[in-house]
């Protein structure tokens, strides 16, 4: 969710942004057939979800566990040009998560400028904010967004290159690389560049990349390597005092696999995160990973299970900065989750998920029930 | 008695003929506008096109058009072109917009409107029963996707 606005959802963003939205919406409502013959096409999709949560050991719903959310996707393609945005709205907050302007240099190779999801996240580059397209209700903790006490910067503003090239007769190679401004860090977590608000503090540089092998060029399976290098400036006295450093440099090294085999799907990711601190502060590192298995069953049912684990997180001063001591679960060290999804109607699903969570200072059992849909 | 038996046999034969599949010998074909320079598309390009990837042919960027005017056509398309179940293909198509802002293929529930749309746009590619375009000079067949 990036740096969500803490205003009501009806709060007015900057006037220039309202103009951009109005122009986009006007273009989206243009007669489709006419637009198509001019080689212009529009996209407008809304992913909505409502969730109920119960459990023990978790005193209250987390800030980011809003009972309702809507992910509005809008895009326009004209010849090789593209404009694309993602606006995320919850019952309490809203933000422009992505806004990208792109040019397709050659087929399936596009250069984007704007705010984007960094490509070194295996989960977020696949599912983004829309709940309907991810089988599980929850996302792995290491893939959390910045305002969910996420430990890895996810929203970068700069330039992104995405390319998919054939490899032999069947396979393909996917390369994505981004460079831009990384978030700042305070005791509230990361603050990425906002496109609709002011951006206090100094933003360092971020390089992120993914190199993936696709067994089938036009399939959904892939496996690959992830790399991130984020220079993060600290902008609160408490964070400076805790780390003894005004800047942290994150080195993120990961590997992932997302494989579909018949009715099965397996997703596994491991990250090694190296944290280098300027000044006398001690450097740190931690490891985090998860594996999820999904199985399609008759009657449009899908069952799934996921295990998440980590090492050295509880000893990290950097990680402890993200724990706001509010009594709810901020940093998940381990989680076992299992659930069942039922796609009971076209583009609508009901899901139930049970999980056991071990955080920095407590253990909890959670039960979640979700309705999710894509409109239209 | 022999006459009655012959009449009964004739009736049975006629009834069998009357209940024979109406779509026997039918073909599902890929069509483009008659103005298009394209004369053929191989199966991998067709699959790529309907899975939302960029396909350029003879300098033209192709635009896929989905035909949902008939359940049987939809079933044959899923089996023979994209090789996916209905729900898997639907989620795949939805992902396109979320991942890269790519446009989902246009869906037509009315075959006449679909044919009109393809006829008017040299970059459009769609599929219909061959009999529905047999005498339509505005479009041409570039591939047989399935035949009975």
What does this molecule look like?
The complex is a heterodimer of chains A (376) and B (148). Chain A is mainly β and 376 residues long. Chain A is built from 5 helices and 18 strands. In chain A, strands 1-2-3-4-5-6-7-10-11-12-13-14-15-16-17-18 form a 16-stranded antiparallel β-barrel. Chain A has a two-stranded antiparallel sheet with strand order 8-9. The longest helix of chain A has 14 residues, at 15-28. With 148 residues, chain B is of the alpha/beta class. A 5-stranded mixed beta sheet of chain B has the order 5-4-6-1-7. Chain B is built from 5 helices and 7 strands; from the N terminus they run H-E-H-E-E-E-H-H-E-H-E-E. The radius of gyration of chain B is 20 Å and the shape is globular. The chains are: A mainly beta (376), B alpha/beta (148). Chains A and B meet through helix 2, strand 1, strand 2, strand 3 and strand 4 of A and helix 2 and helix 4 of B.
């Amino acid at each position: 969710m990036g740096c969500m606005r803490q205003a009501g959802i009806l709060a007015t963003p900057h006037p220039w942004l309202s103009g951009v939205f109005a122009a986009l919406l006007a273009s989206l409502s243009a007669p489709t057939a006419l637009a198509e013959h001019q080689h212009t096409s529009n996209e407008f999709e809304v992913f909505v979800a409502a969730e109920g949560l119960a459990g023990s050991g978790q005193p209250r719903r987390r800030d980011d566990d809003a009972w309702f959310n809507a992910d509005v996707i809008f895009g326009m393609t004209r010849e090789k040009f593209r404009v694309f945005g993602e606006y995320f709205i919850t019952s309490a907050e809203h933000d422009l998560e992505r806004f990208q302007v792109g040019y397709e240099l050659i087929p399936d190779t596009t250069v984007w400028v704007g705010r984007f999801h960094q490509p070194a996240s295996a989960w977020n580059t696949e599912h983004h904010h829309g709940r309907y397209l991810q089988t599980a209700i929850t996302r792995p903790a290491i893939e959390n967004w910045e305002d969910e006490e996420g430990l890895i910067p996810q929203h970068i503003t700069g330039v992104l290159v995405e390319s998919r090239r054939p490899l032999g007769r069947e396979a393909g190679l996917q390369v994505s690389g981004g460079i831009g401004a990384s978030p700042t860090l305070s005791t509230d977590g990361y603050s990425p560049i906002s496109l609709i608000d002011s951006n206090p503090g100094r933003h360092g540089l971020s390089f992120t990349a993914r190199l993936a092998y696709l067994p089938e060029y036009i399939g959904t399976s892939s496996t690959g390597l992830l790399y991130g290098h984020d220079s993060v400036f600290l902008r609160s006295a408490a964070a400076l005092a805790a780390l003894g450093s005004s800047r942290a440099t994150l080195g993120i090294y990961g590997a992932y696999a997302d494989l579909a085999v018949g009715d099965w799907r397996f997703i596994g990711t491991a990250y090694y995160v190296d944290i280098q601190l300027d000044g006398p502060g001690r450097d740190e590192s931690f490891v985090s990973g998860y594996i999820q298995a999904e199985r399609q069953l008759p009657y449009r049912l899908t069952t799934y299970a996921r295990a998440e684990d980590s090492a050295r997180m509880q000893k990290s001063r950097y990680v402890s900065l993200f724990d706001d001591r509010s009594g709810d679960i901020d940093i998940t060290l381990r989680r076992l989750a299992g659930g069942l999804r039922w796609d009971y109607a076209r583009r609508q699903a009901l899901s139930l998920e049970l999980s056991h969570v071990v955080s920095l200072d407590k253990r909890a059992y959670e039960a979640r029930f979700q309705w999710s849909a894509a409109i239209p | 008695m022999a006459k009655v038996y012959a009449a009964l046999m004739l009736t049975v034969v006629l009834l069998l003929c009357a209940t024979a599949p109406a779509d026997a010998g039918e073909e599902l074909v890929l069509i483009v506008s008659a103005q298009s320079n394209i004369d053929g598309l191989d199966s991998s390009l067709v699959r790529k096109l309907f899975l939302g990837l960029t396909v350029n042919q003879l300098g033209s960027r192709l635009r896929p058009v989905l035909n949902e005017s008939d359940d049987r056509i939809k079933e044959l398309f899923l089996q023979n072109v994209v090789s996916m179940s209905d729900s898997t293909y639907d989620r795949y198509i939805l992902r396109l917009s979320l991942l890269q802002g790519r446009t989902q293929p246009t869906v037509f529930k009315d075959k006449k409107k679909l044919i009109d749309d393809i006829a008017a746009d040299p970059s459009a590619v769609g599929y219909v029963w061959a009999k529905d375009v047999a005498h339509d000079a505005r479009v041409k067949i570039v591939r047989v996707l399935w035949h009975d």
